[in-house]
Structure formats: C-alpha cells, structure tokens
Amino acid sequence: MVDGRLRPLGTEEYKKLIRVSRGQDAADIYFQGGTVINVYTRELWPANVAVSGGYIAYVGESDSMVGPKTQVIDVTGRFLCPGYMEPHAHPFPAQVVFSLAQVALNRGTTSMVYDNLFVYQFLEVEGLNNLIHDSVQLPIKIFWSARLDSQTYSDELRERFRPDRVAQFIESPAVRQVGELTDWPSLLAGDEQMVENVINAKKLGKKVEGHAPGASAKTLNALAAAGVTACHESLDAGEALRRLRLGYYATLRLSTLRPDLPDLIRGLLESRIHMGRVMLTMDPVTPPMPYRGFTDYLLRVVMEQGVEPLDAYPMATLNVATYYGLDDQMGGIAPGRLADILVLDALDNPTPSLVMADGAVVAEKLEPKVNFVQENWQRYGLKEIFQPGKKITPDMFQIACTGKPFPVIKLINPVITKRQDKNIPERHGLLDIEDCPGLHFAALVDRDLRWVCNGLVSGFADSVDGIASTYTTAGGVLVIGRHPEAMAQAHRRVLELGGGIVVMDNGSPVLEMPLSLGEHMSKQQCDDYMHNFDDLCRLMEAKGHRHYELNYTLLFLSATHLPELRLSPEGLFEVKSRQIVSPSRKL
Questions:
Q1: Residue 165 CB: number of other CB atoms within 10 A?
Q2: In this structure, are 128 and 31 located in the same domain?
Q3: Strand 406-411 and strand 367-368: pairing?
Q4: Which pairs from 67-71 meet CB under 8 Å and 24+ separation?
Q5: Running DSSP on this structure, what letter comes out for residue 314?
Q6: Would you call 173 exposed, middle or buried from its count of C-beta atoms within 10 A (0-12, 13-18, 19+)?
Q7: Same domain, yes or no, for 573 and 484?
Q8: Which of 301, 326, 351 is the last residue of a domain?
Q9: Residues 221-255 pLDDT 10s
Q10: Which of 60, 481, 544, 572 is the right S-S partner for 466, CB 3.0 to 4.6 Å?
Q11: Residue 448 has pLDDT above 70, yes or no
Q12: What pLDDT is attached to residue 2?
C-alpha cells in the first residue's frame, strides 16, 4: 500500500487508466452486454465495464476502448456485482490464514478483515508485519483487526497488549480497526492500558469494534462516547436497532455458534429502517458453513427473508467499504475502483459463476484459476510451542477435598456456563466423581507445567475418558475427562503432536487432530481440516456431547469475557464478580 492506494499504480499505468476511460487506449478486459448492480443508486443499470490493469476504467455504453488485444467477455443476460467484503473474520478456528481466504475468494469474497488474536499472542511484531506483508500480496484483499485484550484473565497475557507493542502493529495501513473489545468494561472503567490503546488507534484513524452482547442502551451510549463504531453482537432485532440509532454500524451474524441472521433481518424489515449501516458476517467459520457458502450464503439468506436484492448486495459491498473508509477504491462498480467484479447468472443467485479480483479472473464456477502461496511461518518467527517428554502425571488432574461444596462449571450451551456449588464424594482425601454421572474433571495446564487450574465440568458429555486440546483462548492445554490416567495420556500425546486435539478411550487415542502451528492452526488445507473436525464432532456426539459447537466449547472454557465460571491461569474465575474462587496450584 502506497499513498493510501491498496494496489499502487505507476505513473504510466495511471496515465493509461485515464486514456482508457476516455476511449483513447485499449482496455485489457471489457465486459459486454451485462447489467450492473449499482450499489450507489440501488438500480439495475445496463452498462459495459472496461478494465485497465487492476482497476475499472469505464462504465457505460461506449465501446471505444475495445481494441484488437482487448479480452471481451460477453455477459449478456447476466449481472455484474462488486466483489463481496467480509468485515469480521476469524482465520484461526484451527484453519490456516491463506487457505481460508482461497475458499472465500472462489465464492466471490474479494476482501476480508481478519482478527489477529492468536497470531498476536505467539508472534513478535516483526513476524506479524511479515505476515501482513505476505497477506497483502494475495489476489484477495486481506485487512486486519487488532485485539486489545486476550479474552482471558491473566497478568502475563495482558503484557502482550501493552500500548507500545500494539502501536507497532496498528500503524500498518492494512490494519483497519482495533477490537473486537471483549474487555470493554475495562475501557468504561478507565483502565489506563485500554484507554491509551483506544486513543492511539483513534489518532491513526482506525475504527474501534465492540463486543457487547445484551448491552443496555446506557452501556451502548457509553461505548459510543468512548469511540466504538461497530458491533457484531446483536442478539435480536431490538439490539441491532439500538445500535443503529446510536450511530453504530450493526454487523449481523450467521454462524454455527450464533445463527441469528434470519431473525435479525426479519425484525429490521418490520422496523422499516434504512439499512445503509448494516453489514453481514460469518464471524467464526466452522463446519458446516463453508460447505454451504461464504458471503454468498449470507446474501442468499438475507434475500430469502424478504430483503430486495438491490438492498441486500450493498450490505456485503458498499456498506463495508464505507465503514472502513475504502469506498473510493472498492465496494462498487465505478471508474477508479479496483476491478473486483462478480458475474452472477441471476439477480437472486449471489453465488458467482466468475470472480475477478484486481482485474484478473481468479475463479470460475467455484474452481480457482490461481494458486495461493502458503504462509512462511518460519519467516514469521513461529516457534514450536509444545515439547514432548515433560512429566505429566494423573495427580495433576485430581482435586483435593476441602470439606466444602465445590464450584462446578455447568455448560448451559456451547459457550455459556453457570456456577453450581456441589457436595462431591471423596476418597482418600480427593474428590471422587465415579458415582456422579456426567461429571468430568477439567484442567487448564500451563504449557511449561508451571501451574494447573483444576475444576469440574457438567453438561459436557455423558462419559469421556480423556480429551486434551491446545485450542484455548488462554494458551496451554485444556484437559477434560472422567479418568485422570486417561487425561494424562491425552495430555502427553497432544504434546507429542506439537499441539492439537486428542481423544483417549480405553488407553488408546481414538482421534488425533494435529494443530502444530502455534497451538491453534492446522497444516491441512481448509477442506481437509473441515472433514477432520467433522470426524471429531461425530465421535464426541457418540460420547454424549450435548452441544452443537464443540469447537467453541473447547476454545471458550478459558475465556473470561463470557459468563459465568471459567478456567484461567490464575484459577477458577467468576466473571461477574471478577473473583478467583479456587486458585491455580503450582506444579
């Protein structure tokens, strides 16, 4: 990015773009006979489109820029739509950054804003900037959102978000915003680190994204006053309307974790409000979403709920570009904008038959026409985090009896928990869950075995001998099971894999999912990972796992921004009171 332009043009390329627009030079590509979905005027406009280099040079009736070497693409009877934009994506639900981007691009999403949380926690700033540099070279435009908190209560993790360190990352033009702010209470309470980070971001012209599900009008007012500009956590149409009325952009979500989009859209339609500040997101991308589609799937759902196509397409194009201050370069089909153009066979079919990005055809009929480079994790400074050979014993997962009721983590749904204090039987001074159906030991263990946070969880499954996962918000290893010996076996095996998820049954691993890239990411391509994760979900379902999103149960049991009782590096953490109810113990 040079001088604010996403895809810089040299002087001669710039001059040619102007000549092509005037019909004085030949276009590289010319779409002929199509109908432009004009997101600026909300109309269907029969028009031809000329492309020079990576930019649109002309839109209209003229063919004076068609020369002998111009590639003419006949789109008679079809529609030309701007490339879709995903405003809030998580590339680390155990998938690799560029592989996920390839899947999205094949279906017409030509730009994405990626959350940086997990890479930010295990890469240094130089490596992060190298990753940004490589991501900017892809045909798809990848932007970044910078976290200001770790989602887990820990003084050690808090250090990673010091203002001096955050400032080095957010200076990049590829970083468009900070957030999502899961620890927004710290901002409203005047926490110095959080306040300084937000002020620094605003000085650089970055957006600030909130994360405030169920927030009252009073809280939303305070967050808006503090500079928050968008939020993707509307749980119903009333919450979305509250955000829109206060000047937020409301990002409506459809994910396997929160499939809210149909209800949100119907409610907003009933309100008859203007939707120029509404955006669409898949939020976390987990199975089976990519099988259904990407942004094209969101648009299909929106139109099925009654939104007219000419009102739907701006939600995934111009609205996003305007929010991020990029509408002079993308988000619509107009001269001077990047040539991110989709060919749609029907107005109400948002899955493109042809995808152009930066003036080149990159996919056709869902098949890629370009191959992405792979991430160079060695250049980014990614080191092996987990090492085998450490002494892991069953007693790490046992809990001493105190003679008092023990605070049990009860899973209400995949991510929300309740605290239930229970009297647990004891044997030889230890809690004994053998005669407690459905109750499992749970532990968060430091990756260097300095400490362990022990707990009990109910509502997870009927009976799992042992499962260990390095896919957590806090880092380290999450281990759950009925039998401490099986839990220790799962823990040892997950270290041998260098990170990942392991399920033990009768003394043997029955499923292994390596996540050896920074404890969260797979070396597999996106499609292969999805199939592997499907196998894990089916196995856990057979063991009585009760919830529809295992991925986020494992991730968020150590996330202290969600109610009510969580595992954390400091100990069992009660979110509302922000109190440690059972401290971690040193190993």
A1: 15
A2: no
A3: unpaired
A4: 67/25, 67/26, 67/27, 68/26, 69/26, 70/26, 70/27, 70/28, 70/29, 70/30, 71/28, 71/29, 71/30
A5: G
A6: middle
A7: yes
A8: 326
A9: 999 999 999 999 999 999 999 999 999 999 999 98
A10: 481
A11: yes
A12: 40
